[in-house]
Amino acid sequence: MLTTVVGSYPKPDYLRIPDWFTDANLAKGYKYTPADYNEFQRAADKEDLEKQITRAIREVIQEQIDIGIDVITDGELRRENYIYHFCRQLEGFSFEELEKVTYRNGATTGYFPTVVSEVRPRKDQPIVVEEWRASQGLTQHPVKITIPGPMTIIGTTKNRFYKDRRELSEALVSVINREVRALAAAGCKYIQIDEPVMMREPDIAEDYGIEHVSRCFEGLPPEVTKVVHACCGYPLYLDQEDYLKADRSLYGRLAGKLDSAGFDRLSIEDAHCPTDLSFLSKFSRTTVVLGVVAIARSRVETVEEIRGRVREALRFLPPHRLVLAPDCGLGFLSRDVLRDKLTNMVAAARTFPEA
Ligand code: MET
């Protein structure tokens, strides 16, 4: 059975890019905002930073290969987070005019970048293609790239320009689709759109959100694997148990629409809070990437425990349509813990023969 990761890795100590995981880990006192990153960007020695990024990416790529992960990423190591890194490179988003926002029923406050003019690529340049090419240049192993989806971008920014969120979503679809086509033309074989906000806004997901994600992938050749990631949300720090996850029963509600949207793989979480997996039988064509290790809990899942969840999933899905992964990005975990978790995940996967 195949394995993959969802994207992010913790940054090593020598790579001092501020991100919301560092915040989460060091935190309690220091609050990450995009403004901190603005400062960092202004002060950074770009050449030095690029060398550190390359070193760090080389290390995480090698680590995933050594562990035996089939579809690897570059750990998103050059990114402050999986959303803003993309938006910063677009015209239309302001990272200087931030707006204070309270969300998740008042549980979280953040400073959101604002949309202040038409959203389009700056200087007509692709955004993540160079980033992917640099990472892919370090290995023969295919590297998956991740891009935030329209609902997720809208969920962590403030629209001050477009008439409504649907119009902004349309603009984002066309930017993302250009990007996705450019990645395919450059030879990228695994493209993942991160769209966890679908799980927080199921009505919009059903109305047009899922359709917009499928339009982001329009025009791709069949050899490119289209992945959508939809977890139930990051906490603020490791081992936080009381955070407000999206409702997992929504997987069942959205399954039919997601299954007919044309995605090759749908990445969902299960490890943090295992529930009834019978909704998996609603997927008749999509491969499910099942989260079998929790990313915000330091306890390492055993091989037997993971095998148990896989056996349960196999009651509802054939083995060739099941891939194992962590619930989400790995940025909260220490390198030792995440290595142990991924090693157990791969060991469990190898006990299930491919169909
Ligand atoms: N690719 C992103 C990551 O690995 C997905 C985040 S979804 C909350 O962090």
Automatic annotation (TrEMBL):
Sorted UniProt keywords: Metal-binding, Zinc
A Pfam match: Meth_synt_2
InterPro entries hit by this protein: Met_Synth_C/arc (IPR002629), UROD/MetE-like_sf (IPR038071)
One GO BP annotation of this record: methionine biosynthetic process
Taxonomic superkingdom: Eukaryota
Annotated Cobalamin-independent methionine synthase MetE C-terminal/archaeal domain residues: 42-198, 260-350
A single MF term (Gene Ontology): zinc ion binding
Cofactor(s) for this UniProt protein: Zn(2+)
Name the record gives this protein: Uncharacterized protein LOC109482521
Taxonomic source organism: Branchiostoma belcheri
